[in-house]
Amino acid sequence: MAHLSQKLEKGAAKAAPAAAVYSVRRPRSAAAKKMFPYLLVGPAVLYLLAITLYPGLFAMYQSLFVVKFVNWSWAGLGNYTRIVQDREFWAALGNTAIIGGLSLSLQTIIAMTVAFFCYRDPFVRGWRIIFLMPMLFMPSAVAFIWKLAFNDGRVISDLLMSLGLASNNVDWLSSVWLARLTLIVADVWQWTPFLFIIFVGALQGQDEEIEEAARLDGASWSSIFWNISLPMMRPIIVVAVTLRGIDITTMFTNVYIMTQGTPGGATETMSYFIYRQGFRMFNFGYASAASVLMLLITIVVAQTIVKRAFKSGKS
């Protein structure tokens, strides 16, 4: 028995150093610790650069050439000189500003109004996903639905006639403003929830004690909203509206499926103009120059709006 216990003690003594050796971790150097977070996000950064930076640089390079498939001839700034004199380019830019501006204004007003009435409602807290349903549909599916409602299926026309607001079928593509209205309605229906959910989150994130103090002083809900809640959420409103405005400048799916720029180019946005130049007329260099100019205009406008909004907020 004593002999067996001696063997067990010797075995434990031999195993202990081995276990100790394997349990020791090598200390990381300061450089390795510093580079470790960058290594984690490195693949995602490379992926984003591959799908954003490279196409942008390639478009800038291609805009300096007259491109007809494999035939490239140097043009320098010739494409840019042509495009600033192109009436169709400025018309498409104006259409984008008009359609996008009206759509963004309606989205902001509707989203803010609904958020004002709902942000303290417990139903909104638990079922926010319901308000996001339109955003979950594919843009092409939404465009087809509204094309069916306005044009192919005459659903809206039949509804207007049943209400006595129209005497006959409405040809929505025969009028400039009616055609623009179809695009605005489709865009507002799908993307108002984007602004709504941001505004609701901003309102629900504010300190309730400030509202309670204002109510004790006799302030109404509307007065609290306009004088307290709205100024406090101004930075969030500016960022959300700017992001949505940038997205509106790329409106293509609705135009391609619902109007294709008719009537007479009144609904041709910048994205559709670039598509038509590149993939219908095969002026790839010209289309690249238009996309670069549109990018520069968007950056300048967005930067100006954000800078002025935050500067006035600080002052």
Main pleated-sheet profile: 2 strands, antiparallel
Percent strand equals: under 5%
Helicity range? over 70%
User: Structural class per helix/strand content?
Assistant: mainly alpha
Poorly predicted tracts of residues: 18-22
**If you compute it from the alpha carbons, what radius of gyration comes out, rounded to the nearest whole angstrom?**
30 Å
Strand order of the largest sheet: 1-2
User: Residue-averaged pLDDT, rounded?
Assistant: 85
Q: Write down how many β-strands occur, each being a DSSP E stretch of 2 or more residues.
A: 2
In DSSP terms (H or I, runs of 4 or more residues), the helix count works out at: 16
For the termini, the CA-CA separation is 89 Å
| Overall spatial form | globular
Notes on the protein architecture:
This protein is mostly helical. It is built from 16 helices and two strands. The protein has helices at about 1-25, 30-60, 80-85, 85-120, 120-125, 130, 135, 140-150, 155-160, 175-205, 210-215, 220-230, 235-250, 255-260, 270-280, 285-315; strands spanning about 65-70, 70-75. A two-stranded antiparallel sheet has the order 1-2. Helix 2 (about 30-60) crosses helix 16 (about 285-315). The chain is globular.
